[in-house]
Amino acid sequence: MDGKSAIKWNPFAPNYFNDPYAIYAQCRTSNPIQQDSFGNVILFKYRDIAPILDSEDFEVSSLSTYFASKESYIFKNNSQCPFLAKATNKWLMYLNGESHRKLRIALGKVLFSYDFDQLIQESVQETIFYFKHHKKLDLVDFSKHFIYQILSQFIGLKDFTSLDKVVEFSNLAARSQDLFVSKQMYLKMNECFIEGVGLFAESNFKAKLKKELKGLEYEEEDYYSILAVTLMAFFETSKDNLSYSIYLLLSSPKLIKFVLEADNKAIKLLTEESIRFVSPLQFTVRINKKVVIIQGRQYKPGTRFILGIASANRDEEIFEAPDEIIFDRKVNPHLAFGAGSHLCLGALIARKEMEIGLKPIVEFLQKFEVDTLEPLQWANQIFMRTLQSAMIKLK
User: Fold this and answer.
1) What's the topology of domain 21-394?
2) N or C: which end of the chain has fewer CB within 10 A?
């Protein structure tokens, strides 16, 4: 936050969405603590971010409360039902205290009652079979199909639900957390949340969740909110991580060879390194409950900190050659899944998707090569870095 520094984080700079890491690196070096015009404090260095994620002196902000405060503006002179606040009311990553702890325990019990090893193995084979005759394909579509197969089996999506509908719902749910969202986009999200009630069946997942939360004051809208964020968190981050990871692997004969010859231990190391390098969740937010001092600067309670997770995961002070994939990196304390009480509940599942799926996927896709005539297409999203298209073709 050095007033003399010319380096300021600007997500609307030319080429930012294609490669935000150049700006992150400049910020870490020249201006690692910044404050925007809204009073948000933006942090870029690992040493500043990691302790906050792990500290009980910080809490998450309430997305539902934020939407409720904006509803009069968003829905002014509009007949749409203001459903945004209700639909996000029980999103686990935006809850604090006992409500967060109890829901996390219940949701964890439900999630890990499923045999994800088998679900992932079956989904890999189904996806390979679906794409086996393609001469050209989009790795984003490949990853969407794979994750959708897993998701539809455990969360319980109605038979009429299409992959396209899940993709739209998941992406809009993810974008609802972004910075600088337009009023028109909020209206589109609201409409999608209302329609999305029809996505979820009276599934075994929902029944298990109701059983675990029995005795607590949860209404149907609360269960919908939980199912909505489970779908988004499971689908969006997994799809983003897998699609770009596979693209990077197929771009390197050395990495392809490594995967094909790797044992389980080696695949685990590569999985962790890939998750660090890709970091689909680029930023997260924390608010301090008491006065804190960071690098000699004092911040009053209620300060909103935007934590650059992706920047921290490329910090030269922590990671050797951070802008390279080192497939056997032994020490890898990345923050891609967060830390502390809000450590990503689905981290184990996300790891399993790659640990189980990576080798058979690469075995199938090694006959393809990156289509250099069709460059990567990235979405204009700040908090979640989303790959829109990554084309490959038969060699």
Assistant:
1) Cytochrome p450 (1.10.630)
2) C
